[in-house]
Specification:
four-stranded mixed β-sheet; alpha+beta; globular; 14 helices
Length: 358
């Protein structure tokens, strides 16, 4: 457990009342919630594994100076709409509500772009940003949209920014470009790091699906949102049936009862990491960054029926005990890097400025 987190006994739960899709809901909020309270163990293990790989600090040091953060923010300011209390106030209010429920202290900037594709993402190594694509607004109801916003804020709570930034780097410039900066061993090291980051990215989604459930506190809402993100929109299936989806998950689980069928599931997971997948725009992707939709739904449904989830709802969860004034870029007590002297977030494994391993 990180030094800024502590397990607390249950306190009287706090709530906030809101209206979603015409239904009044009373939602629990989690004061001083630590990301460690809900982070999936596979997410944490995969992150530790990739950051322990040879040359990882060197790869990180090259791209951690803030240049890519600035480029991302400039791109958003140039091509998207930044939301706030005076721009897209209703949508921004949902964003603030989700942040309040999860106790996100340093509120990220929120952007809406005009892309009709169905997606949302969080980024920013030094300055968190959440981007919603226009296509997502056309298929989700208010509760489902709140769940997806909670998912993206889960990346912030779980401190995913380092690995996310490097994963986006590999996707944008390609493994060969990155490897060329390190002669002789660069290609093998880059491939190992890329493979590790892709595995981590899939595991990280399980953590953030939990954040989505903590926000909306209705596992059927999260399941329907994930189904829609997978491409099953209301115009295709207007009468979404939760029980039928549960039966489908049961059928999927039975594949593990047969060795050959289990091998078929494994082959589906590995094929895009080795052969590549042709995208609609003609590009080729190597490796999935997200788990398969049915598996994600199963995992979140299982967690929604777990003691861990019920304990968090009851107010018994790991709390963040660091000193962190709201919206402060460097909370009191933040450590300084011994190499470059810059401030770092408490609990960091690397300096976000020079890449020094702590």
């Amino acid at each position: 457990m990180p030094p800024n987190a502590a397990a607390n006994t249950a306190a009287a739960p706090e709530t906030v009342t809101t209206t979603l899709d015409g239904v009044t809901r009373e939602l629990r909020i989690y004061p001083r919630l630590s990301g460690d309270a809900f982070q999936h163990a596979a997410d944490r293990d995969a992150s530790n594994a990739v950051q322990a790989l040879p040359l990882f600090p060197e790869f990180f040091r090259l791209f951690a100076g803030g240049y890519f953060d600035q480029m991302m923010r400039m791109e958003n300011l140039n091509n998207t709409m930044r939301l706030g209390r005076d721009q897209g106030a209703d949508l921004y209010a949902r964003f603030v509500l989700a942040a309040r429920i999860l106790d996100v202290q340093e509120l990220p900037e929120l952007y809406l772009n005009g892309d009709a594709r169905i997606n949302a993402y969080a980024g920013g190594l030094h300055r968190p940003m959440v981007v919603l694509q226009r296509g997502i607004l056309s298929i989700l109801n208010e509760a489902e949209l709140l769940a997806i916003i909670g998912h993206e804020l889960g990346h912030v709570k779980c401190r995913h920014s380092l690995n996310t930034s490097l994963t986006r780097l590999f996707a944008s410039v390609g493994v060969n470009t990155v490897a060329s900066l390190f002669p002789v061993v660069g290609h093998l090291a880059a491939l190992a790091i890329q493979h590790g980051l892709l595995h981590w990215s899939r595991m990280a989604e399980f953590s953030c699906d939990r954040a989505a459930l903590l926000v909306v506190q209705d596992r059927q809402v999260v399941a329907s949102a994930l189904a829609k993100l997978a491409g099953f929109q209301e115009k295709h299936i207007p009468d979404f049936n939760f029980e039928a989806l549960l039966r489908q998950i049961d059928d999927y689980e039975r594949y593990d009862e047969n060795t050959l069928q289990a091998a078929a599931k494994l082959q589906r997971t590995l094929v895009t990491s080795t052969v590549g997948r042709q995208n609609s725009d003609g590009s080729v992707s190597y490796g999935d960054t997200h788990p398969q939709p049915v598996l994600r739904v199963k995992r979140i449904l299982d967690w929604g029926d777990s003691d861990q989830y019920r304990d968090i709802l009851a107010g018994n969860y790991v709390r963040d005990t660091s000193t962190r004034p709201a919206l402060a870029p460097h909370p009191a007590g933040s450590p300084k890097c011994s190499q470059c002297g810059n401030f770092m977030p408490t609990g960091s494994a690397f300096c976000s400025h020079c890449g020094q391993r702590l």
